[in-house]
Amino acid sequence: MKNVTDSFVSLVHWPFAGSFGFNTDILATNPINLSVVLGVLIFFGKGVLSDLLDNRKLRILNTIRNSEELQGGAIERLEKARARLRKAEMEADQFRVNGYSEIEREKLNLINSTYKTLEQLENYKNETIHFEQQRAINQVRQRVFQQALQGALGTLNSCLNKELHLRTISANIDMFGTMK
Fold it and tell me: Per-residue pLDDT averaged across 60-74, rounded?
């Protein structure tokens, strides 16, 4: 707020040409406008952004936890498959004479299907994490933009009323009168 009043105070030092006009000096007006817009965005957007990021962080952590549970289940199935493999190897020793090649084929198929299942679960976990991250980023971008726009419009609408304008002019005239 001090910067706003300083900008009105600095009007006292400007030489008056006898008429009112627009300041067309882009280098003088753009930094002021940008600083006001950035200040409004930072003031109104930082709390909302941190809440959104915290919520997204919790959702992502829950998704990771669920994926890890799925991975744990896959590891458990892998251990069961290895136990079945050991059992199949014992049976292979017993039936080596009758069908050694058939048992080896079954063993390889079992290992391959288990590894394929593990790969699929790992891919699913990675895709889920990536999808959730992208969705979180898009939601945060959209909300920040909407809230920043609403905040800026609300601030501009609340600040640009006739009473405030007249009070500012009166205050500046009083200050100018006391300086003479």
Answer: 92
| C-alpha separations of 122 from 69, 79, 106, 109, 138 in Å | 11, 16, 24, 20, 24
The pTM for the full model equals: 0.30
Structure tokens at 80: 């069961």
User: pLDDT tens for residues 77-105?
Assistant: 999 989 999 998 888 777 776 666 777 78
3-state secondary structure 128-180: HHHHHHHHHHHHHHHHHHHHHHHHHHHHHHHHCCHHHHHHHHHHHHHHHHHHC
Amino acid letter, residue 176: F
The per-residue DSSP string of 29-76 comes to: HHHHHHHHHHHHHHHHHHHHHHHHHHHHHHHHHHHHHHHHHHHHHHHH
Cβ neighbors of 148 (< 8 A, separation 6 or more) are 40, 41, 44, 45
Mean pLDDT of the 41-65 span: 89
Q: How far does Cα 31 stand from its chain's mean position? A: 28
Exposed / middle / buried, residue 71 (Cβ in 10 Å: 0-12, 13-18, 19+): middle
